[in-house]
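does this look right to u?? zinc ion version
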Amino acid sequence: MQSTLAIDMTTAIALAALAGLFVGNWLAGLVERLPRIMDYDWEAQFREWRGDQTHGDEARGEQARDDQPRADQSQVDNQRPSLWWPSRQCPACQAPVTGWRRLPLVGWLSQRGRCAACGKSVAWRYPVLECLTALGFAACVWHFGPGVQALWAMLLVASLLALAWIDKDTGLLPDVITLPLLWAGLLANVADTFAPTAQAVLGAAVGYGLLWLLFHGYRLITGREGMGYGDFKLLAALGAWLGLAALPMLLLAASLAGAVVGLLMIALRRARRGQPQPFGPFLAAAGIVALFSGGVWTGWLF
Ligand SMILES: [Zn+2]
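got this back:
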């Protein structure tokens, strides 16, 4: 009995790619805004903390100054930015990007990558993330077939692309993405979607613990910090999605790729020796490769 959706593979892949373009367009905005939102929140928390710590005239003076609207700061600076507000605008001249110009690829191509108002070039992050997400989504449907598994895979791919890009730009892997991603992986594998449930739970715990140990061991020996807690959480999330057995190859592939790119950057004089390099993009890339090669890696290992 035929129980699958009545669409053929080519249509499904094309639809997934189209959806990927739009999701990639949204991700390109997220990648720019999320660090700004985090900055804002950190600053707000810090101000609150400082307000709680200081008493007396100084605190009251601070309070009085905070109550008055600051003339030199624009309203935009005082208001918490959100993923939806203000709507997309040119980073150079703040002109809003409206109508069909907001469409993925079409908008960017028709303006040849330049702002319609001021002519400054628009971030190449937009077309690149749009194309990568479209490719990733198409690959999900092609590899897993149209269905629930492909939808889960798309969620993982989109999250990893966003994380990789944010880490590349800011050196941060935001908890608001890594932690829900971990839970989502465990949830997906309740039905053994990508790995048996037990493998997923162990993968999450060992993924975090392994990097935690490496981090503290490295710090003990060299006195330096080789990576951040965000990396632990990302490997935990990948362990939750892909299972315990995927961890060794994930780490090996990410470290090798990181070393090769690091050496290339030094050779091309784009980076200095000893300059820290975010590990997240390599972990994310290894995660995407592992998602699509699945059993091949773990089968090779065991
Ligand atoms: Zn502009």
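The mean pLDDT is 85. idk if thats expected tbh
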